Amino acid sequence: MKKSFTIHDLPVEERPRERLEKFGPETLSAQELLSLILGRGTRGESVAVTSQKILSKFGSLETLREASIEDLKEIRGVGLAKAAQLQACIEIARRINGSTQHQKQKGKKRHILSSKDVYQLVKSKIKNYAKEHFIVLSFDSRNKLLGTDTISVGILNANLAHPRETFEAAIRRHAAKIIIVHNHPSGNTEPSKEDIEITKQLVEAGKVMDIEVLDHLIVGEGYKSIL
What we know:
single chain; 9 helices; alpha+beta; 2 domains; 5 strands
């Protein structure tokens, strides 16, 4: 029986590594990029097949970035080592992206004038997350953005949105005001009963700490303000 098809069965000029060298990484498909990261397949299965199975399971690289080690290890041919390689690459990309955004804003504080401004600022980062992300934006007394901090990841509840964690970043940034944002992976922006209750608790905690809670936005297919 013929062995499983491998990258080495391709003509040299069609192999991902050689194509990257000649034409640049931007010309490679998602499958080819994953194949280069994984390096090699397993017995009876080429790395190209494993890469395609990863894309089939998660749908896109955008969705893949939220995959856990356990999610990745469910795929045949992806053990702890390969799952760790993928997550390391995703985290490097995330940090580079965060650093780039920081450099763009360095020395230039952004004025936020409305809930729509907040939505435009965070939508590309948060609306496609597969899990709920709870984010706090800190502002000075003139509504200039001091920084954005992810407080927790998971289903929003009183534990994940505890006032201690919520206001910790704001205090560190010497903020006078904050805006809270979290996403609904379903796309539905209607606030739940718990969303409303948590917002009330944080508003009251803010009064005690002399940090005003300006708004709480839910981001999905669009956005909705709770306050």
